[in-house]
Amino acid sequence: MKAGKENMEEESREDMKKAINPLLSPYKMGKFNLSHSYPNTPGIWTSEQTQAWRPIVDAVHEKGGVFFCQLWHAGRVSNFGYQPNGQPPISSTDKPLKIEFHIDGSGGASFSPPRRLSVKEISQVVDDFRIAARNAMEAGKSKLAIQIRFDGVEIHGANGYLLDQFMKDEVNDRADEYGGSLENRCRFPLQVIEAVANEIGADKVGIRLSPFANYNDSGDSDPDALGLHMAESLNKFSILYCHVIEPRMVTQFEKLETTNSLMPMRKAFRRTFIVAGGYNRDDGNEAISNGVADLVAFGRPFLANPDLPRRFQLDTVLNKHDRNTFYTPDPVVGYTDYPFLET
Question: Which residues form the NADH:flavin oxidoreductase/NADH oxidase N-terminal domain (predicted)?
Fold first, then answer.
């Protein structure tokens, strides 16, 4: 059965390579038929966040799309300091971040020293991820009036958040079975993957990784080895996809020249391989045509262009994103107020 799914993805992969506009070509990812359509539905924001998401998810499904719920724990980046219960944030270390996070340009938030997780607590966090995945998938079965049907979950193992804090040797300074060697540092993230895959099915699980990035003061001395080890290890669980940030995005907002490549990871991982980071229409099409990736993920361009697939199809001008509105509490400005193309 696994081989059959891999063969279907390989056939889909070859079809996309031959397409005139590979970014917009249909793709078979496991049991999901991706059509690259988009819902003409702006976000509906209310005090009830579940209610806010439901029409968006429903619109995606009406267009034949799929919607994955991202699961993540920020670790020492949590809450810009101490948690509401008075406890410090958790991490693989007790070292605080060396950076200040400036939300709107008017000031920064310093991070308090984290608390190093015990081995027993790590097991509990693994279980927390498992329960969160189950809850996400059961949201559509809820007896509540508001239901959301997620198609799967993406585990966020990137961007300097908790799982990344264990993988990266410039953060993880543990001396137990979760620190030191590459295998030990990756143990916790892989335990999370295994627990979630066992709970909801590997065909509904993806992961996001950033081995080359140094976001939130989380770098690694050998990102090539880290990325390859994770790609090879993920094959044991037959998860749906691996979503990786390009090496050129060492920092969050600047695209740098580099000779590093994701190709070793791409060749090692046997299922759908997704890349992200600094892509536009032309190099996105080129990445798929050249076999660099099966799919290309767009973040800021999609935020600023809710009809991005149509703009790519027409090869027309894009709205420019406004970085000053990123990570702000306003529920509309910079999130749902970018214009669609005129019909």
Answer: 35-313
Residue 23 has pLDDT above 50, yes or no: yes
What letter represents residue 160's amino acid?
Answer: G
The CA distance from 59 to 32, in Å, is: 16
Q: Burial code of 267-287, b = ≥16 C-beta within 10 A, e = fewer?
A: ebbbbbbbbbbbbebeebbeb
Q: What's the CA gap between 128 and 160, in Å, rounded?
A: 19
| pTM score over 0.85 | yes
β-pair partners for 27: 34
Please tell me the distance from the alpha carbon of residue 149 to that of residue 67, in angstroms, as a whole number: 8
- Residue 327 designated active-site: no
The CA distances from residue 283 to 22, 273, 280, 334, in Å, are 11, 16, 6, 26
The string of pLDDT tens digits covering residues 144-197 is: 555 778 999 999 999 999 999 999 999 999 999 999 999 999 999 999 999 999
Which residues lie closer than 8 Å to 240 by C-beta, 6 or more apart?
A: 29, 30, 152, 202, 203, 204, 205, 206, 271, 272
Instruction: Provide the pLDDT confidence category of residue 39 given band limits of 50, 70 and 90.
Output: low
Q: Which of the 8 DSSP states describes residue 93?
A: S
pLDDT score, position 142: 57
- Residue 261 CB neighbours (<10 A): 15
- β 272-276/295-297 pair status: parallel
pLDDT in tens, 108-148: 556 778 999 999 999 999 999 999 999 999 886 655 555 77
Annotated catalytic residue, options 27, 38, 82, 161: 161
Beta bridge partners of 145: none
| DSSP string across 144-191 | SS------EEEEEE-TTSHHHHHH-TTT----STTSSSHHHHHHHHHH
Q: Report the alpha-carbon distance of residue 227 to residue 252 in Å, rounded.
A: 18
